[in-house]
Amino acid sequence: MQQDLAKKAAGEMAATFIQPGMTVGLGTGSTAYYTIMRIGELVRDGLQLQAVATSEQSEQLAREQQIPIVSFSEVSRIDIDIDGADEADEQLRLIKGGGGALLREKIIAAAASEMIVVMDESKLVKQLGKFPLPVEVVPFAWELTFKKLTELGAAPVMRKKDNKVFITDNGNYILDCHYEKISDPAVLHQQLNSTPGVVDNGLFLSYANKLIIGYADGSVRSLSR
Fold it and tell me: How high is the pLDDT of residue 3?
């Protein structure tokens, strides 16, 4: 319950950065949920904006909240992207993809003028890696990709849901890689993404401009790049 209060505080604070007329990227996850709910309230109160979503789940929630969703072909820019993280360090480097939407989240983050990351205090770490790093891979010959990642020391595990292989919104698989500690995120990012079969990985190293961290007492603090 206290964690929910922390997530709600962070998620709602992020919505205060939205200005009328903006195009907003809507993130995925349990903290971004509160941002979407708050944006829905603002829209019903008359705030004019349009949004793009990083997952089918977030798009459905946004439509339920009467937030205007537009297709990417209609978007010339994304003013602000508000998303969660599974881990973040004080250099604003992130691990994302616990919800399975890392590729779409990275595409939106790269297109946005500003990325605000919302999270509760448990997600702020000294060193990335305790949370398993999601790596999205194509289904074709995934076994060979799995073996290559194993050789690289990734300790990959095929993600499953309801005892079935988890399929991303893009029709790919996710291998969750267990490092415990990532000593050089930039080198690892390059190593993973240069592996044939890997689409992308959950390291977001230079996208976040601001972290909004919620605490159990309902307070928030922010870190900026």
Answer: 76
Phi, psi of 221 (to 5 degrees): -140, 160
Q: Which helix (H) or strand (E) holds 118?
A: strand 115-120
CA count, 13 A, side-chain hemisphere, 201 = 29
Co-location of 137 and 95 in the same domain: no
Decide: pTM greater than 0.90: yes
Q: Which of 12, 59, 105, 136 is catalytic?
A: 105
Q: What is the CATH number of the domain that holds 46?
A: 3.40.50.1360
Q: Please indicate whether residue 74 is annotated as part of the active site.
A: no
- Checking if the pLDDT of 98 tops 90, the result is yes
- Domain check: are 55 and 80 in the same one? yes
Q: What are phi and psi of 60, to 5 degrees?
A: -65, -45
State which residues form the domain around 78: 2-125+205-224
